[in-house]
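Sample log: nitrite reductase (cytochrome; ammonia-forming).
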Amino acid sequence: MSKAKASWAKPLIMAGAVILTVSCAACAPKVVGDSAGDAADAAVTGAFVQTKDASWEKWRSEYPLEVDSFFDGMDEVEAWDGKVHSHAMLYANVPVSAADPQTNGTACIACKSTTGTKLYEEMGLDSFSQPWDEYEDSIDWWDCGLCHVDATPGGELHYNGMAATAFGGTLLDSIDQKQAVCGQCHNYYGAVYTRGGLMKKMQSGEVDYNSVDPYRYGTDPESLMKAALEDGYEMNVDPETGIATFQANHPEIEIFQGSVMQEEGLACIDCHMPTKTSEDGQPYTSHNASSSPLENEEALEFCLTCHTEQGVESTDEMKQFVKDAQQSVADLEAQFTEKQTQLHGLIKDATAAAEESDALNEARDLYTRGTWYVRYADGGGDFKGQKVAHNPYGEREYVQQAIDMMDQGIALLS
């Protein structure tokens, strides 16, 4: 297949400023340094394909505050694993990510680019496994069209990512698009359905793509796991213990469902993209969705519109209120980890002794499910309560359920 042709608009980002030029794009370089500021100082360049008659150059000329705030993420988000974790740095991070794009191909743009959506419209599921080398220079990273209809900034919101278009409709079409545009990337199905064994099964016809639906049972961890396994997802099994792992990344839109935040009519962008005021007094929607609301005075002020009823009177108190909630979940997770370690040892010993039994298999299942429950509550990583604001009651409940599962498994093998 020949490489897609496109017109280019490439931003050159230096020391927090955005200088826009138009040229053919080279592949994004590896990010080097200990902070996002270091990455910006390194004069990072990235490829952005023009969307219809719009481009970053055009968008910035019309919406300078929004576009510049988007790139502020480079300076404000901490670097780790050799990458700067901000939306503005996606084009630089993916080529050097742990999930090698040479292996996963265009699945690496399943949720981050409208280029992937165009490929999906052209070739269906084959769009998830095209060679990375053929498209790495023609990828439109997180452009306005990913969230705005017809790539019109300030216009109607609607998700437009490849994975969301292929697998997320059941949920994303049923919720406020202020949630859906974030949920198109921050979901569990991206890692489960878009690459690996299940995708290959769908591409070969072994699994009927039209029959899969990640959300047919619901958005809680048990329902998501049940649907994925029925659809043909195969868990990795540790040969030493026989323990299976349900690997799903950042299930954040899922845990937000039914939360007190959602019930109050809030969406992701209310806290992560608050209205700010420029130096000359112009209000605008911040597009630096990468920074923590705890470091954003406007976001904290917005929190106070509800939390003053709980006796929180200042942004400093609001920040401490959230940190206390985070710590309470982290403390629960510490209990879980202790019991998880104990159960792992019991399973390992029983497996080594060739003591296969119904009790051992049940203990393995409890270990697998409990571990997934905590991963679900954590937002898909080792965040230990940092994302408690997404669902304050739900996170505690799921971690507690996971603790109970560890206790049940320990009792079975003790």
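Observation: The radius of gyration is 22 Å.
Observation: The first helix runs from residue 36 to 41.
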